[in-house]
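Apologies for my clumsy wording, but can you show me some protein sequence, whichever is easiest, together with the matching structure tokens, please?
=====
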Amino acid sequence: MSQWLTIYKKEMLHFWRNKQLIWLPLVMMLIGIIDVITYYYLPEVIELSGGLPDGAVFDVPAIKGHEAILMGLDQLSLMGSLVIIAISMGTIANERNSGLAEIMLTKPIHHFNYVTAKWFSLITITMFSLCLAIGLNWYYTNILFDTISIKALLQTCLFYSLWFVFIVTIAVFFNSFLSKSGLVFAFTTLTLFILAIINTAFGHRLPYFPNQLSNHIGSMLLTGDITKQLLITSSLIGFLILVLLTAASFIFKHHKL
């Protein structure tokens, strides 16, 4: 356990020295609120930009609080995912490419400890940033739109965080056998793109597909109930995370550095 903690502390210190513990939460918070604030002040923005032609009418449809929350989640799923992939793409690949991983593993360090400690350090910074982003989105939603309960906020953070844990795990999986961080970024992004295509084409037939998580969270926010579909989808994502993390450890152990 001390070996695992040593690697974990090393990674967290690396995040601190690179200021990722500062700029990542700020970027994620900006991504989480930009659509909500823009939508609310859109009439004023149009007016300041010169307004509409004479006779033209532009009405911004009113939205509910849960729709504002989902608006922020959609933006996080798009832009936030790319940011998280960017900070995850070199977690092992860079050390493999520089030879540092090989030097470290000449010591009695277990491969599973090495991979999972790095994975959990990424999870820590990701969850910290994501919860701040969702919390700020919730704050502005309560001010500008409808009141959303703290219970709903916590449930949203809990379930939606699984999606980002899934993304980090995919990146770590590709890190386990690729030595170029650019390739890790490309393959992780491609994987998410393929999942999105499958969801678009067959989502209506696959209610428990990972990409359906946001839809089920939307139903939860609307009704206030945690649905069976949300629980099963979350369990499936959790299972995939476990499989990918185990595979990453196994591949890293047997793949030539």
